[in-house]
């Protein structure tokens, strides 16, 4: 029995040591990653031609549908066409003809927004790369945008990144498949054209702020909390102290001014909007959003890009930072937890339906 007790203590100490080492290593790796980010980032620019992606999907399906005899005929015709194309190109070079005019390009960027608009850093790097090569006369940028909004200053910066594209005279289209609300719509409105799926959520042109207050709880338990400031409006609202009507009025004044700035920003970029009707914080689904001019067309991003493949080289551009081990572990845990929660909710829903 004494042996088991000592062995258990040994195991506990070993586990504690291992956990401590993992924490230390995680902190060191995170610090190293932050230093890399501060000095230009440890990531890579990924470029993929979507024309090839959609063509391969079509070819794969067609191949499955062909019989063996049809496949032989197809392969024979394909090889013949490739030889003819190569022969024509060779003859053209021999004759000294000018190179065929390059097709216009459509650069596709993605933004998946959380409350802090964390994707902004990747977006700005991708935009910087695209602007270094895009031709204003022929090329176009498409932003596939998904966001329910978040912090004003964070989404203000994200929208300003898209303004850089417009400032260069390059056509910008925003595609919204699910949601572009509040800060998300602040970004979408920068585009020359907004395309959304039938049930995408648009709008929410408003500002909200909420915070708990524990003053009465602290007072009930004889706990004093003092807020010391230099400057009349340095702290208008507090979580632990007693809020005053004067402070509350100033906070609401700032909130209203932020809403005014939001409306002005949207109105400058979509002058056809009836701001009094759409800037009340309400949301509209795709078809209803079209009726009030929040968007310009009902179409999914897939439809838009497949059609673009017929007239241009469609190129996906994304900057992806290499994730640290703690981040990978965190993402894996988060994904597993999310999957479990959704399974439980789905089971509960199915049980209720039955």
Automatic annotation (TrEMBL):
Family designation: Belongs to the peptidase S49 family.
Example of a GO cellular component annotation carried by this entry: plasma membrane
Residue ranges crossing the lipid bilayer per the database entry: 7-29
Family annotation (NCBIfam families): PRK11778.1 (NF008745)
A GO biological-process term: proteolysis
Key words of the record: Cell membrane, Coiled coil, Hydrolase, Membrane, Protease, Serine protease, Transmembrane, Transmembrane helix
Subcellular location: Cell membrane
MF annotations from Gene Ontology: serine-type endopeptidase activity
Coiled-coil features, chain-numbered ranges: 47-101
Domain of life: Bacteria
Residues annotated as domain Peptidase S49 N-terminal proteobacteria: 2-162
Protein name: Protease SohB
InterPro entries in UniProt: ClpP/crotonase-like_dom_sf, Peptidase_S49, Peptidase_S49_N_proteobac, S49_SppA_C
Start and end residues of each Peptidase S49 domain: 166-312
């Amino acid at each position: 029995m004494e042996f088991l007790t000592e062995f258990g203590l040994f195991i506990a100490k070993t586990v504690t040591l291992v956990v401590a080492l993992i924490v230390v290593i995680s902190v060191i790796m995170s610090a190293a990653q932050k230093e890399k980010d501060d000095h230009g980032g440890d990531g890579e620019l990924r470029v993929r031609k979507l024309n090839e992606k959609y063509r391969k999907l079509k070819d794969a399906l067609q191949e499955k549908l062909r019989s063996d005899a049809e496949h032989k005929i197809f392969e024979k015709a394909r090889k013949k066409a490739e030889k003819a194309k190569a022969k024509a190109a060779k003859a053209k070079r021999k004759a000294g003809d000018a190179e065929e005019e390059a097709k216009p390009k459509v650069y596709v960027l993605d933004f998946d927004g959380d409350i802090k608009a964390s994707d902004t850093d990747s977006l700005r790097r991708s935009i910087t790369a695209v602007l270094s090569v895009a031709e204003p006369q022929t090329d176009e940028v498409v932003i596939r945008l998904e966001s329910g909004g978040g912090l004003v200053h964070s989404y203000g910066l994200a929208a300003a990144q898209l303004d850089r594209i417009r400032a260069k005279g390059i056509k910008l289209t925003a595609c919204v498949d699910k949601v572009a609300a509040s800060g998300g719509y602040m970004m979408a409105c920068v585009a020359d054209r907004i395309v959304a799926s039938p049930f995408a959520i648009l709008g929410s042109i408003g500002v909200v702020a909420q915070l708990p207050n524990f003053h009465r709880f602290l007072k009930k338990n004889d706990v004093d909390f003092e807020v010391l400031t230099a400057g009349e409006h340095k702290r208008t609202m507090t979580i632990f102290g007693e809020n005053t009507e004067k402070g509350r009025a100033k906070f609401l004044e700032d909130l209203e001014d932020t809403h005014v700035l939001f409306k002005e920003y949207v109105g400058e970029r979509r002058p056809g909007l009836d701001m009094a009707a759409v800037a009340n914080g309400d949301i509209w689904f795709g078809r209803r959003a079209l009726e009030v001019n929040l968007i310009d067309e009902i179409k999914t991003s897939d439809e838009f890009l497949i059609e673009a493949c017929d007239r241009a080289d469609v190129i996906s551009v994304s900057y992806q930072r290499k994730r640290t081990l703690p981040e990978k572990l965190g993402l894996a845990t988060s994904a597993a937890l999310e999957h479990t929660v959704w399974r439980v909710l789905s089971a509960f829903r199915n049980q209720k339906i039955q």
